Amino acid sequence: MTRFTVNNKPIEYKMDPDTPLLWALRDASNLTGTKYGCGTGECGACMVIVDGAARPACQMSIASLEGTFVTTIEGLAKDRGHPVQQALIAANVPQCGYCIPGVVMSAAVLLQGNRSPSEADIKGAIPNICRCGIYPRLVDAISHAASIARGETQAPGENGEGSPSPGFGNGA
């Protein structure tokens, strides 16, 4: 049995200890916002936060996570209220939505440690692959998310304008 915390809830998985976290989350915990992409940890679709760091869930066994704290897209903000989620939706960044949960997790970790990231910081912190080509809008949206997080600009919907739409993918 493997024990760790997922989205602030203690979890005990009675699965093979070598099971990748991705499949434990999706199959045993029904947390399907974490997506399967390449299976090699290179595309970023399965990105989660483990003890404050963005990590690909497909590359970690549940045994290796004993005693850690894992946050999935579902645990980041129940109402899509995280500044990154708000900024991506406001800028119409999501297209198919498949990569967005992983992008959000990578960007959230960036903003935890750097409230004023440069374009180079953003590009370096977001390893995620997007087949739809969201990259031109992504840097601006993450910069806007940083300004929301710093309290310099309002999030969409806070001033009565343009509330976030819930229609972008599962968990984005």
Automatic annotation (TrEMBL):
CDD domains: fer2. GO terms for molecular function: 2 iron, 2 sulfur cluster binding; metal ion binding; oxidoreductase activity. It comes from the Bacteria. Residues 1-76 form the 2Fe-2S ferredoxin-type domain. The keyword NAD does not apply. The keyword Iron-sulfur applies. It holds the Pfam family Fer2. Keywords: 2Fe-2S, Iron, Iron-sulfur, Metal-binding, Oxidoreductase. InterPro entries: 2Fe-2S-bd (IPR002888), 2Fe-2S-bd_dom_sf (IPR036884), 2Fe-2S_ferredoxin-like_sf (IPR036010), 2Fe-2S_ferredoxin-type (IPR001041), 2Fe2S_fd_BS (IPR006058), Beta-grasp_dom_sf (IPR012675), Diverse_Oxidoreductases (IPR051452). Residues 152-172 are annotated as: Disordered. Residues 157-172 have a biased composition (Low complexity). This is (2Fe-2S)-binding protein.
